[in-house]
Amino acid sequence: MDKSPPIIIRRVRKVARGHHGGAWKVAYADFVTAMMAFFLVMWLVGIASKDQRAAVSEYFKNPSAVEGTAAIPGTSSLGPGGASDKLIPTANALSMPGGIGPRVGEPGEATRNRIPDEAEARAAAAAEDHRQLEALRRELEAAIEQSQALAPFKDQLLIDLTPEGLRVQIVDRLNRPMFDLGSSRMKDYTVEVMHELGKLLAGSTHRIALAGHTDETPFQGPLGYGNWELSSDRANAARRALLEGGLDETKVARVVGLASSVPFDRNDPRAPINRRISIVVLNLASDGATAAAGEPPPQPAAIPQTAVQQAATAGASAAHG
Protein backbone atom coordinates (compact mmCIF):
# COMPACT_ATOMS: atom_id res chain seq x y z
CA MET A 1 0.00 0.00 0.00
CA ASP A 2 1.36 3.39 -1.06
CA LYS A 3 1.50 5.54 2.02
CA SER A 4 2.94 8.73 0.37
CA PRO A 5 1.21 11.95 1.47
CA PRO A 6 -1.49 13.27 -0.80
CA ILE A 7 -0.52 16.16 -3.09
CA ILE A 8 -2.80 19.20 -2.65
CA ILE A 9 -2.88 21.61 -5.55
CA ARG A 10 -4.17 25.05 -4.74
CA ARG A 11 -5.13 27.18 -7.70
CA VAL A 12 -5.00 30.94 -7.28
CA ARG A 13 -7.56 32.74 -9.31
CA LYS A 14 -6.25 35.99 -10.77
CA VAL A 15 -8.92 38.55 -11.54
CA ALA A 16 -7.77 40.82 -14.34
CA ARG A 17 -8.40 44.44 -13.63
CA GLY A 18 -9.92 46.62 -16.31
CA HIS A 19 -7.55 48.87 -18.29
CA HIS A 20 -7.87 52.54 -17.33
CA GLY A 21 -7.45 53.60 -20.95
CA GLY A 22 -5.82 56.99 -20.06
CA ALA A 23 -9.01 58.53 -18.65
CA TRP A 24 -6.92 60.60 -16.24
CA LYS A 25 -5.40 62.40 -19.18
CA VAL A 26 -8.80 63.56 -20.30
CA ALA A 27 -9.63 64.78 -16.81
CA TYR A 28 -6.30 66.57 -16.58
CA ALA A 29 -6.82 68.20 -19.97
CA ASP A 30 -10.24 69.42 -18.84
CA PHE A 31 -8.68 70.85 -15.70
CA VAL A 32 -5.96 72.68 -17.65
CA THR A 33 -8.55 74.02 -20.09
CA ALA A 34 -10.70 75.28 -17.25
CA MET A 35 -7.70 76.98 -15.63
CA MET A 36 -6.79 78.63 -18.93
CA ALA A 37 -10.34 79.87 -19.30
CA PHE A 38 -10.33 81.16 -15.73
CA PHE A 39 -7.11 83.12 -16.13
CA LEU A 40 -8.28 84.42 -19.51
CA VAL A 41 -11.48 85.72 -17.92
CA MET A 42 -9.49 87.30 -15.08
CA TRP A 43 -7.20 88.99 -17.61
CA LEU A 44 -10.13 90.35 -19.62
CA VAL A 45 -11.82 91.64 -16.47
CA GLY A 46 -8.57 93.30 -15.45
CA ILE A 47 -8.16 95.27 -18.69
CA ALA A 48 -11.84 96.13 -19.14
CA SER A 49 -13.09 99.57 -18.18
CA LYS A 50 -15.73 100.16 -15.53
CA ASP A 51 -18.42 100.74 -18.16
CA GLN A 52 -17.45 97.59 -20.04
CA ARG A 53 -17.62 95.48 -16.89
CA ALA A 54 -21.03 96.95 -16.14
CA ALA A 55 -22.19 96.05 -19.64
CA VAL A 56 -21.00 92.46 -19.26
CA SER A 57 -22.71 92.23 -15.86
CA GLU A 58 -26.00 93.46 -17.30
CA TYR A 59 -25.63 91.05 -20.20
CA PHE A 60 -25.63 88.04 -17.88
CA LYS A 61 -28.35 89.49 -15.68
CA ASN A 62 -30.75 89.74 -18.60
CA PRO A 63 -30.00 87.01 -21.19
CA SER A 64 -33.43 87.11 -22.78
CA ALA A 65 -35.05 87.95 -26.07
CA VAL A 66 -37.41 90.44 -24.47
CA GLU A 67 -36.79 94.10 -23.75
CA GLY A 68 -34.03 94.45 -21.18
CA THR A 69 -31.85 97.04 -19.50
CA ALA A 70 -28.45 95.93 -20.77
CA ALA A 71 -25.99 98.66 -21.69
CA ILE A 72 -25.54 96.94 -25.08
CA PRO A 73 -28.88 95.85 -26.58
CA GLY A 74 -28.83 92.39 -27.99
CA THR A 75 -28.93 91.64 -31.70
CA SER A 76 -31.07 88.54 -31.49
CA SER A 77 -33.25 87.75 -34.49
CA LEU A 78 -36.12 87.37 -32.00
CA GLY A 79 -35.99 91.00 -31.01
CA PRO A 80 -34.23 93.31 -28.56
CA GLY A 81 -32.91 91.96 -25.31
CA GLY A 82 -29.80 91.27 -23.29
CA ALA A 83 -28.57 88.28 -25.29
CA SER A 84 -27.55 87.80 -28.89
CA ASP A 85 -27.69 84.87 -31.26
CA LYS A 86 -24.42 86.00 -32.89
CA LEU A 87 -21.11 84.69 -31.59
CA ILE A 88 -19.21 87.87 -32.40
CA PRO A 89 -20.49 91.31 -31.41
CA THR A 90 -21.52 93.44 -34.36
CA ALA A 91 -19.95 96.77 -35.23
CA ASN A 92 -23.01 98.56 -33.92
CA ALA A 93 -22.57 97.00 -30.50
CA LEU A 94 -18.90 97.84 -30.48
CA SER A 95 -19.58 101.47 -31.30
CA MET A 96 -22.13 102.01 -28.53
CA PRO A 97 -21.22 103.61 -25.18
CA GLY A 98 -19.87 100.92 -22.90
CA GLY A 99 -19.21 98.58 -25.82
CA ILE A 100 -16.89 95.67 -25.12
CA GLY A 101 -14.23 96.91 -27.50
CA PRO A 102 -12.43 95.52 -30.55
CA ARG A 103 -11.84 91.87 -31.33
CA VAL A 104 -8.37 90.44 -31.16
CA GLY A 105 -6.36 91.32 -34.24
CA GLU A 106 -8.25 94.58 -34.95
CA PRO A 107 -6.21 97.26 -33.14
CA GLY A 108 -7.84 100.20 -34.89
CA GLU A 109 -11.47 99.25 -34.25
CA ALA A 110 -11.67 100.85 -30.80
CA THR A 111 -10.39 104.17 -32.11
CA ARG A 112 -12.79 104.19 -35.07
CA ASN A 113 -15.84 103.37 -32.96
CA ARG A 114 -15.04 105.36 -29.82
CA ILE A 115 -17.53 108.12 -29.11
CA PRO A 116 -15.82 111.43 -28.24
CA ASP A 117 -16.18 112.43 -24.63
CA GLU A 118 -17.49 115.77 -23.46
CA ALA A 119 -14.09 117.47 -23.42
CA GLU A 120 -13.38 116.44 -27.01
CA ALA A 121 -16.82 117.65 -28.08
CA ARG A 122 -16.15 121.01 -26.45
CA ALA A 123 -12.76 121.30 -28.12
CA ALA A 124 -14.26 120.48 -31.51
CA ALA A 125 -17.04 123.05 -31.04
CA ALA A 126 -14.53 125.71 -29.96
CA ALA A 127 -12.31 124.97 -32.98
CA GLU A 128 -15.25 125.28 -35.38
CA ASP A 129 -16.36 128.48 -33.65
CA HIS A 130 -12.88 129.95 -34.03
CA ARG A 131 -12.84 128.98 -37.72
CA GLN A 132 -16.13 130.80 -38.30
CA LEU A 133 -14.92 133.96 -36.58
CA GLU A 134 -11.67 133.88 -38.53
CA ALA A 135 -13.68 133.61 -41.76
CA LEU A 136 -15.84 136.54 -40.65
CA ARG A 137 -12.72 138.60 -39.95
CA ARG A 138 -11.42 138.04 -43.48
CA GLU A 139 -14.85 138.88 -44.88
CA LEU A 140 -15.02 142.16 -42.95
CA GLU A 141 -11.51 143.18 -43.97
CA ALA A 142 -12.29 142.50 -47.62
CA ALA A 143 -15.59 144.39 -47.38
CA ILE A 144 -13.89 147.43 -45.84
CA GLU A 145 -11.43 147.54 -48.72
CA GLN A 146 -14.17 147.26 -51.34
CA SER A 147 -16.90 149.39 -49.75
CA GLN A 148 -17.04 153.01 -50.88
CA ALA A 149 -18.67 153.93 -47.57
CA LEU A 150 -16.12 152.16 -45.36
CA ALA A 151 -12.89 152.58 -47.29
CA PRO A 152 -12.34 156.24 -46.23
CA PHE A 153 -12.56 155.16 -42.57
CA LYS A 154 -10.38 152.04 -42.70
CA ASP A 155 -7.75 153.81 -40.59
CA GLN A 156 -10.42 154.16 -37.88
CA LEU A 157 -11.65 150.56 -38.08
CA LEU A 158 -9.52 148.13 -36.08
CA ILE A 159 -10.30 144.40 -36.39
CA ASP A 160 -8.67 141.62 -34.38
CA LEU A 161 -9.42 138.29 -32.71
CA THR A 162 -9.44 138.21 -28.92
CA PRO A 163 -10.20 135.47 -26.37
CA GLU A 164 -13.76 136.81 -26.28
CA GLY A 165 -14.37 136.76 -30.02
CA LEU A 166 -13.94 138.98 -33.07
CA ARG A 167 -13.47 142.63 -32.06
CA VAL A 168 -14.28 145.58 -34.33
CA GLN A 169 -13.30 148.98 -32.94
CA ILE A 170 -14.31 152.33 -34.40
CA VAL A 171 -11.97 154.95 -32.98
CA ASP A 172 -11.86 158.74 -33.06
CA ARG A 173 -9.27 160.64 -35.06
CA LEU A 174 -8.12 164.11 -34.13
CA ASN A 175 -9.99 165.81 -36.95
CA ARG A 176 -12.68 163.15 -37.46
CA PRO A 177 -14.63 162.38 -34.28
CA MET A 178 -17.54 159.94 -34.30
CA PHE A 179 -19.87 162.05 -32.14
CA ASP A 180 -20.62 165.65 -31.51
CA LEU A 181 -18.65 167.17 -28.66
CA GLY A 182 -19.98 165.96 -25.29
CA SER A 183 -22.99 164.35 -27.00
CA SER A 184 -24.28 160.92 -28.05
CA ARG A 185 -25.39 162.30 -31.42
CA MET A 186 -23.47 160.57 -34.20
CA LYS A 187 -21.83 162.34 -37.08
CA ASP A 188 -23.44 161.55 -40.41
CA TYR A 189 -20.43 159.58 -41.62
CA THR A 190 -20.44 157.57 -38.35
CA VAL A 191 -24.06 156.61 -38.98
CA GLU A 192 -23.11 155.46 -42.47
CA VAL A 193 -20.25 153.35 -41.10
CA MET A 194 -22.54 151.73 -38.53
CA HIS A 195 -25.17 150.95 -41.18
CA GLU A 196 -22.54 149.19 -43.31
CA LEU A 197 -21.28 147.20 -40.34
CA GLY A 198 -24.85 146.24 -39.46
CA LYS A 199 -25.31 144.79 -42.94
CA LEU A 200 -22.06 142.84 -42.71
CA LEU A 201 -22.78 141.42 -39.24
CA ALA A 202 -26.40 140.54 -40.01
CA GLY A 203 -25.39 137.26 -41.67
CA SER A 204 -23.46 135.99 -38.66
CA THR A 205 -25.09 133.51 -36.27
CA HIS A 206 -23.12 134.95 -33.34
CA ARG A 207 -24.38 137.59 -30.95
CA ILE A 208 -22.50 140.81 -30.26
CA ALA A 209 -21.57 142.95 -27.26
CA LEU A 210 -21.29 146.72 -27.58
CA ALA A 211 -19.18 148.94 -25.34
CA GLY A 212 -18.53 152.67 -25.26
CA HIS A 213 -15.33 154.35 -24.05
CA THR A 214 -14.33 157.95 -23.48
CA ASP A 215 -10.96 159.49 -22.89
CA GLU A 216 -9.88 160.78 -19.48
CA THR A 217 -10.85 164.38 -20.12
CA PRO A 218 -13.19 165.45 -17.31
CA PHE A 219 -16.73 165.99 -18.44
CA GLN A 220 -19.60 167.16 -16.33
CA GLY A 221 -23.09 167.73 -17.69
CA PRO A 222 -26.29 168.77 -15.94
CA LEU A 223 -27.61 166.66 -13.08
CA GLY A 224 -24.32 164.80 -12.65
CA TYR A 225 -24.18 163.59 -16.26
CA GLY A 226 -20.58 162.49 -16.86
CA ASN A 227 -18.35 160.17 -18.85
CA TRP A 228 -20.07 157.02 -17.57
CA GLU A 229 -23.45 158.16 -18.82
CA LEU A 230 -21.96 159.54 -22.02
CA SER A 231 -20.15 156.30 -22.89
CA SER A 232 -23.32 154.29 -22.22
CA ASP A 233 -25.46 156.58 -24.37
CA ARG A 234 -22.96 156.42 -27.23
CA ALA A 235 -22.85 152.62 -27.08
CA ASN A 236 -26.63 152.54 -27.21
CA ALA A 237 -26.63 154.98 -30.14
CA ALA A 238 -24.28 152.62 -31.95
CA ARG A 239 -26.71 149.76 -31.24
CA ARG A 240 -29.59 151.67 -32.83
CA ALA A 241 -27.50 152.47 -35.90
CA LEU A 242 -26.51 148.81 -36.32
CA LEU A 243 -30.16 147.77 -36.15
CA GLU A 244 -31.04 150.36 -38.78
CA GLY A 245 -28.35 148.81 -40.97
CA GLY A 246 -29.98 145.38 -40.82
CA LEU A 247 -28.70 143.69 -37.66
CA ASP A 248 -31.39 141.70 -35.85
CA GLU A 249 -32.14 143.00 -32.38
CA THR A 250 -31.89 139.49 -30.93
CA LYS A 251 -28.22 139.44 -31.95
CA VAL A 252 -27.38 142.12 -29.37
CA ALA A 253 -26.29 140.47 -26.13
CA ARG A 254 -24.96 143.39 -24.09
CA VAL A 255 -24.56 147.18 -24.30
CA VAL A 256 -22.24 148.77 -21.72
CA GLY A 257 -20.49 152.06 -21.07
CA LEU A 258 -17.03 151.94 -19.49
CA ALA A 259 -16.09 155.65 -19.52
CA SER A 260 -12.28 156.00 -19.34
CA SER A 261 -11.68 152.87 -17.24
CA VAL A 262 -9.98 150.93 -20.06
CA PRO A 263 -7.96 153.28 -22.26
CA PHE A 264 -6.70 152.09 -25.64
CA ASP A 265 -3.55 154.20 -25.29
CA ARG A 266 -2.47 153.87 -21.66
CA ASN A 267 0.46 156.21 -22.19
CA ASP A 268 -1.84 159.05 -23.22
CA PRO A 269 -5.23 158.68 -21.46
CA ARG A 270 -6.56 161.80 -23.29
CA ALA A 271 -5.61 160.62 -26.78
CA PRO A 272 -8.48 160.67 -29.33
CA ILE A 273 -8.06 156.93 -29.99
CA ASN A 274 -9.32 156.24 -26.46
CA ARG A 275 -12.72 157.56 -27.56
CA ARG A 276 -14.11 154.54 -29.32
CA ILE A 277 -17.00 152.15 -29.85
CA SER A 278 -16.21 148.45 -29.65
CA ILE A 279 -18.25 145.69 -31.23
CA VAL A 280 -17.31 142.18 -30.08
CA VAL A 281 -18.76 139.28 -32.05
CA LEU A 282 -18.95 136.87 -29.14
CA ASN A 283 -17.62 133.34 -29.35
CA LEU A 284 -19.47 130.49 -27.64
CA ALA A 285 -17.50 130.83 -24.42
CA SER A 286 -18.17 134.54 -23.95
CA ASP A 287 -21.80 134.17 -24.98
CA GLY A 288 -22.10 131.65 -22.16
CA ALA A 289 -21.21 134.43 -19.71
CA THR A 290 -24.11 136.44 -21.07
CA ALA A 291 -26.41 133.46 -20.55
CA ALA A 292 -25.19 133.22 -16.95
CA ALA A 293 -26.35 136.81 -16.53
CA GLY A 294 -29.86 135.75 -17.51
CA GLU A 295 -29.79 136.37 -21.25
CA PRO A 296 -30.13 133.10 -23.21
CA PRO A 297 -27.65 132.68 -26.09
CA PRO A 298 -28.77 131.30 -29.45
CA GLN A 299 -27.05 127.99 -28.63
CA PRO A 300 -25.55 126.51 -25.45
CA ALA A 301 -22.10 127.74 -24.62
CA ALA A 302 -19.44 125.12 -23.96
CA ILE A 303 -17.23 126.88 -21.49
CA PRO A 304 -18.58 129.45 -19.01
CA GLN A 305 -16.47 132.56 -18.38
CA THR A 306 -16.71 135.84 -16.57
CA ALA A 307 -19.04 138.66 -17.52
CA VAL A 308 -19.16 140.01 -21.02
CA GLN A 309 -17.53 143.19 -19.79
CA GLN A 310 -14.29 141.25 -20.28
CA ALA A 311 -15.06 141.20 -23.97
CA ALA A 312 -15.48 144.93 -23.81
CA THR A 313 -12.45 145.37 -21.53
CA ALA A 314 -10.23 143.44 -23.92
CA GLY A 315 -10.97 146.05 -26.55
CA ALA A 316 -14.19 147.83 -25.75
CA SER A 317 -14.89 151.22 -27.11
CA ALA A 318 -16.49 154.51 -26.24
CA ALA A 319 -16.47 157.99 -27.45
CA HIS A 320 -16.06 161.39 -25.94
CA GLY A 321 -15.68 164.46 -28.02
Keywords:
single chain; alpha+beta; 60s Ribosomal Protein L30, Chain: A; five-stranded mixed beta sheet; 5 strands; disordered C terminus
Structural account:
By secondary structure, the protein is α+β, with helices and mostly antiparallel strands. It has helices spanning 23-47, 50-61, 91-95, 109-113, 118-146, 188-201, 227-244, 284-292, 309-315, and strands at 157-162, 165-171, 208-213, 252-257, 276-282. It has two domains: 23-113, no CATH class; 119-315, 2-Layer Sandwich (60s Ribosomal Protein L30, Chain: A). A five-stranded mixed beta sheet has the order 1-2-5-3-4, sandwiched between helices. Helix 6 (188-201) packs across helix 7 (227-244). The protein starts with 22 loop residues before the first helix and ends in a 6-residue tail after the last helix.
Over all CA atoms, what is the radius of gyration?
Answer: 40 Å
State the end-to-end distance: 168 Å
- Shape call: rod-shaped
**Content-based structural category:** alpha+beta
What is the CATH C-level name of the largest domain? Answer: Alpha Beta
Concise summary:
The protein is 39% helix and 10% strand.
Write the layout of secondary structure elements.
Elements: H1 23-47, H2 50-61, H3 91-95, H4 109-113, H5 118-146, E1 157-162, E2 165-171, H6 188-201, E3 208-213, H7 227-244, E4 252-257, E5 276-282, H8 284-292, H9 309-315
Parallel strand pairs: 3-4
Antiparallel strand pairs: 1-2, 2-5, 3-5
Helix pairs in contact: 6-7
